[in-house]
Amino acid sequence: MDVYPMGRLLRGTLASGQARALLCETTQMGAAAAKIHRASAVCAAALSRGLSGAALLTAVTEEPTSSLTMTVKGDGPAGALVLVAHGRRLKAYIDHPEVSLPARADGKLDVGGAIGAQGRITVIRDMGLREPYVGQCRLSSGEIAEDIAYYCTMSEQQPTLCALGVLVSGGAVLSSGGLMIQPLPGCDEETLSALELRAPVYADISRHLLETPPEELFLDFFRGLNPEIHAVEALVLSCDCSTERMERVLVSLGRVELEDMIRTQHGAEICCNFCMKKHAFSEEALVALLAEASEPSPD
User: Fold this and answer.
1) Does the pTM exceed 0.70?
2) CATH number at residue 11
3) Contact 81/72 with Cβ under 8 angstroms?
């Protein structure tokens, strides 16, 4: 299992437990993902925002072993952005990491243009129950933070403020992180108003993280709201692909596809979308897998 640099996740509460607040720092993870995928500046920002967003969404459950898959699929040229989290271990890929777009009028990277505003965000949560929870809603902007907030409000019926920030220079991720705030039952209007008034400050979280440690920033952001940090957890960029997993992929193709590979290619090579590691299979290995492959279904 390939493991890349760690980030940090802070879990806390505000106003004596009236709201949940999560803050993550994912700079090294975003930088590693951008390097793995040889991503353009705008796609490096999308990958980094996605990692931060998935980390925050997973942590909302307060269950460190839960799993989550988030797919942000718009009509933009970068294609689908896919994030997978197993506990605090995350991985990410984007269909077309080479896509490059001009900056927006305000000088910021056009992540929304790369992802596209027309499409859907899908979240699959596996809490260890009999069936996973699958939630889906339309995209709000393709900028990812707004889409996650809209998803939480519409699909999970949980009002959410989400801010995701990335600073990129020449394709290198300099700072990356995110913030998620969710009012809990009993949250009063005064607390809600105070959080809404501070929202513009949260939007610039990547610049704040460039200068301030996450623990200090958490207390600064929520000064006057009785901020309490209850836990600090490590985040890791990690791919769990293996020969055994790729064997199952090959078997799932069926006998016809496997026989064609044996006859025409005399072997196979599968590249993991997440870590770009290549898994090679000899002709003999494919022949051995034939016994496990099913016959094609009749028309």
Assistant:
1) yes
2) 3.55.30.10
3) yes
Q: Are residues 191 and 278 in the same domain?
A: no
Please list, residue by residue across 271-292, b when 16 or more beta carbons sit within 10 angstroms of its beta carbon and e when fewer do.
ebebbeeebebeeeebeebeee
Of 117, 101, 97, 119, which is closest to residue 109 (Cα–Cα)? 101
Quote the CA–CA distance of 81 and 180 in Å, as a whole number.
Answer: 20
Residue 296 belongs to some domain of the structure: no
- Cα distance between residue 64 and residue 80, in whole Å: 26
- 165 with 126, same domain? yes
Q: Tell me: the pLDDT tens digits for 157-180?
A: 999 999 999 999 987 999 999 999
Work out the percent of the chain whose per-residue pLDDT is above 90: 81
* Residue 245 pLDDT greater than 50, yes or no: yes
Quick check: is 297 in a domain?
no
Question: In the predicted model, is pLDDT for residue 211 greater than 50?
Answer: yes
- From CA 231, how far away is CA 10, in angstroms rounded? 6
Is the per-residue pLDDT at 297 higher than 60? no
For the chain, what is the domain count?
2
DSSP state of 276: -
| Residue range of the domain that includes 260 | 243-290
**Residue 4: predicted pLDDT:** 74
What are the percentages of helix, strand and coil residues in the chain, rounded to 5?
A: 35, 30, 35
